């Protein structure tokens, strides 16, 4: 039997005795069979949280904060969260990029501009991303669409960049897995050059280069001579890539509930390996020479603009700014978490990890330089012995030098100095090498050249070299996985928040798609594609993304309001330092960095380093016209979502001012909720998601006589217990 509205009111009056807080806390215990419907309320409001780019309000996004907090996954502990952020920010670049920049840009003096820019650019932007993710509790798409709908494309651009980076980053993990699998041998397979057909003849390509270089380019990659020669799939690397994506998929399939547990190992194990390597390297001859070379400051280089530009770029990428992974991880935090402390802590952990890795790298390279220098001395000493009595007089040899024993590097230097002084111009004709440890250490290497050539060569001279090789490549795998978790989270979280798909299905789908596209990188020409994506798919797009993030918060939303939000969230007002950084200094520096990067790209035509088999050496080649088109397309595709969404919003092709939407849940014995849009009141906070009181005459709810309020004490929910002018409803609906 249908009931009239008076009967409904009377029944509700009798039943509603619990407080708002009790009702919210008991909402999950209600009957599972319920129906939600979205109702348009009161005119038009701004686009807010939960509103997608089509101007529609997703039902689940319209729910209350309490409902969202209950449904959204959370970190099991603060330590797990910190390890996740550290694992994401500390990656392969800390091991094979930072030491190279340190060596190239003035040694210990490089740490000064790096530390200054970390404080001026790195920490403020890292703090900004942590704050918006933690407060709005959405991925990158939801966060930036929520703060400024016209800048909603920032989140999509972040997802595109994350996907591009994930494509080639996991290939590097695959390479590390291959070397890891080959390390269980004594001696290591790259210990010496192969012989042809079991004869004493050495493979010419290996003889002209070195055993580790040959193994990397020919045995591991089987590389082609140019990017135009695909050469077909490298089946061993294809298997390794499949294994790498399987590991990522299994670790991420349950979101932070599964990846968070893996973080304890993937984030901590690299530190164990680095410390073990440092202790072992310090016990080897020549390690102190490497560390001394690294920390010897070259102050004149520090004044060059290029040094500051490269330091700013390294700070920017070291912290993973703009990828969306930082926002995604912080969105699973409690809203009162001290994210300022987290930002400072993770930033300095990242910095000290880079310094630790640099110590390890130069200690090992110092040992390697000592070995190489010893071989150089032995080889050139034989030349001198052969020239004695003919081109070289025996009187030029110091009496204490005994050629029947091993000649030290110091004695060799004394001999060559005397010979050079006497013979002068004829000295060059002798073909004697300088054999200097400094020259050996000045051979700057980075990236794959450091990890898969220089470092592997050094480890062949370690006692128990297979053990150290296993540890090193397992460390690289873990460093890569930690960064991959954050990168994939930067894709999955915003898509799940926006489109409400099952995280398990989306994770498997993304990993499968990325694997099949990633086959491009395991061709024989795959290394060249990795270099192309590394150079062009992330650098410029991420700079633009972070500039827009900074502008969206500091200028569109407002630094003053953002500070009020932070005070409410943290319980204290952040240092005024951040106000000036966000509003003036950081955007200006980022624009200068973007400009200098564009100028550098314009001055240096796109090229790549190719391995030429016949020459057994690298050669710089220019990209073909189609290669240039791909480079430009990577940049354009990554940044395209920003202008597209802006113009769609600006010209109202996607309605920016959709109606205010309320989500009403019809559950037996449960609460009925109205959520208003925050843009209806100028003083309302976007980040707080505070909503003003409903407009008189437009609200579908009214409060009960006796004073049950329309909203909870924090002003976030408009909750009606009695529905005015409620139509007759069937009994079964109540």
Q: Mind summarizing the main beta sheet?
A: 2 strands, antiparallel
Shape: elongated
Number of strands: 8
Mean pLDDT over the full residue set: 79
User: Percent helix among the residues?
Assistant: 55-70%
Query: Using only CA atoms, what is the Rg?
Result: 31 Å
Total of helices: 28
Strand content: 5-15%
- The termini sit apart by 12 Å
Comma- or semicolon-separated keywords:
single chain, 734 residues, mainly alpha, two-stranded antiparallel sheet, 59% helix, disordered N terminus, disordered C terminus
What does this 3D model show about the protein?
The protein is elongated. α9 (153-181) runs antiparallel to α28 (641-650) and α12 (235-252) packs antiparallel against α23. β2 (607-612) and β3 (617-622) form a beta hairpin. The protein is built from 28 helices and eight strands. It is mainly alpha-helical. The strands form four sheets. A two-stranded antiparallel sheet has the order 1-4. It has helices at 5-15, 20-25, 65-71, 78-89, 92-96, 98-104, 111-136, 140-147, 153-181, 204-208, 211-220, 235-252, 256-282, 287-295, 299-302, 305-318, 325-330, 339-387, 409-423, 437-441, 447-459, 465-499, 503-518, 526-536, 539-570, 576-603, 625-639, 641-650, and strands at 35-44, 607-612, 617-622, 659-666, 673-674, 701-702, 718-719, 722-723. Mean pLDDT is 79; it is low at 1-67 and 658-734.
């Amino acid at each position: 039997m249908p009931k009239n509205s008076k009967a409904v009111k009377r029944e509700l009056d009798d039943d509603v005795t619990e407080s708002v807080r009790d009702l919210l806390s008991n909402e999950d215990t209600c009957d599972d069979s319920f129906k939600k419907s979205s109702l348009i309320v009161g005119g038009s409001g701004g686009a807010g949280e939960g509103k997608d780019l089509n101007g529609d309000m997703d039902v689940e996004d319209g729910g209350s904060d309490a409902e969202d907090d209950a449904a959204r996954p959370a970190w099991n502990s603060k330590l797990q969260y910190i390890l996740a952020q550290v694992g994401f920010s500390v990656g392969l670049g800390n091991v094979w990029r930072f030491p190279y920049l340190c060596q190239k840009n003035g040694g210990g003096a490089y740490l000064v501009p790096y530390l200054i820019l970390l404080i001026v650019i790195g920490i403020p932007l890292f703090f900004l991303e942590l704050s918006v993710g933690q407060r709005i509790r959405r991925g990158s798409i939801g966060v930036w669409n929520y703060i400024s709908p016209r800048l909603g494309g920032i989140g999509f651009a972040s997802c595109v960049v994350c996907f591009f980076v994930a494509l080639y980053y996991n290939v590097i993990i695959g390479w590390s897995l291959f070397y890891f699998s080959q390390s269980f041998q004594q001696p290591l397979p790259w210990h010496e050059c192969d012989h042809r057909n079991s004869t004493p003849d050495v493979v010419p390509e290996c003889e002209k280069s070195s055993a580790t270089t040959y193994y990397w380019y020919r045995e591991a990659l089987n590389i082609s001579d140019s990017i135009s020669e695909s050469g077909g799939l490298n089946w061993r690397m294809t298997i390794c890539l499949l294994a790498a994506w399987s590991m990522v998929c299994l670790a991420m399939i349950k979101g932070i509930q599964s990846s968070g547990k893996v973080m304890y190992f993937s984030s901590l194990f690299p530190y164990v390996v680095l410390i073990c390597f440092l202790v072992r390297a310090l016990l080897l001859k020549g390690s102190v020479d490497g560390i001394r070379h690294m920390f010897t400051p070259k102050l004149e280089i520090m004044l060059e603009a290029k040094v500051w530009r490269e330091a700013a770029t390294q700070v920017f990428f070291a912290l993973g700014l703009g990828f969306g992974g930082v926002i995604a991880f912080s969105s699973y935090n409690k809203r009162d978490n001290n994210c300022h402390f987290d930002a400072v802590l993770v930033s300095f952990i990242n910095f000290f990890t880079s310094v630790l890795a640099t110590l390890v790298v130069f200690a090992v390279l110092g040992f390697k330089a000592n070995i190489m220098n010893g071989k150089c001395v032995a080889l050139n000493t034989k030349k001198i012995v052969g020239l004695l009595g003919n081109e070289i007089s025996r009187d030029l040899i110091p009496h204490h030098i005994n050629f029947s024993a091993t000649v030290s590097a110091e004695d060799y230097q004394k001999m060559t100095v005397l010979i050079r002084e006497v013979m002068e111009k004829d000295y060059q004709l002798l073909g004697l090498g300088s054999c200097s440890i400094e020259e050996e250490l000045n051979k700057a290497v980075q990236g794959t050249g450091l990890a898969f050539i220089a470092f592997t060569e050094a480890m062949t001279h370690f006692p128990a070299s297979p053990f150290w090789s296993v540890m090193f490549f397992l460390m690289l795998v873990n460093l890569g996985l930690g960064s991959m978790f954050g990168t994939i989270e930067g894709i999955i979280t915003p898509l799940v928040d926006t489109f409400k798909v099952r995280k398990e299905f989306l994770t498997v789908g993304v990993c499968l798609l990325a694997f099949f596209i990633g086959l491009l990188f395991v061709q024989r020409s795959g290394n060249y594609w990795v270099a192309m994506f590394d150079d062009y798919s992330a650098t410029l797009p991420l700079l633009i993304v972070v500039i827009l993030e900074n502008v969206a918060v500091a200028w569109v939303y407002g630094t003053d309001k953002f500070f009020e939000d932070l005070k409410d969230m943290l319980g204290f007002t952040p240092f005024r330092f951040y106000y000036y950084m966000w509003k003036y200094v950081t955007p200006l520096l980022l624009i200068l960095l973007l400009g200098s990067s564009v100028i550098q790209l314009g001055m240096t035509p796109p090229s790549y380093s190719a391995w030429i088999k016949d020459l057994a050496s690298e050669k710089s080649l220019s990209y073909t016209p189609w290669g240039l088109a791909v480079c430009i397309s990577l940049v354009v595709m990554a940044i395209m979502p920003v202008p597209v969404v802006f113009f769609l919003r600006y010209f109202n092709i996607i309605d920016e001012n959709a109606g205010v939407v309320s989500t009403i849940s019809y559950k037996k014995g449960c609460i009925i909720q109205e959520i208003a849009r925050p843009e209806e009141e100028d003083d309302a906070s976007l980040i707080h998601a505070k909503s003003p009181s409903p407009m008189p005459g437009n609200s579908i709810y009214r409060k009960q006589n006796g004073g049950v309020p329309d909203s909870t004490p924090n002003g976030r929910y408009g909750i009606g217990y009695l529905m005015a002018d409620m139509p007759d409803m069937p009994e079964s609906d109540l």
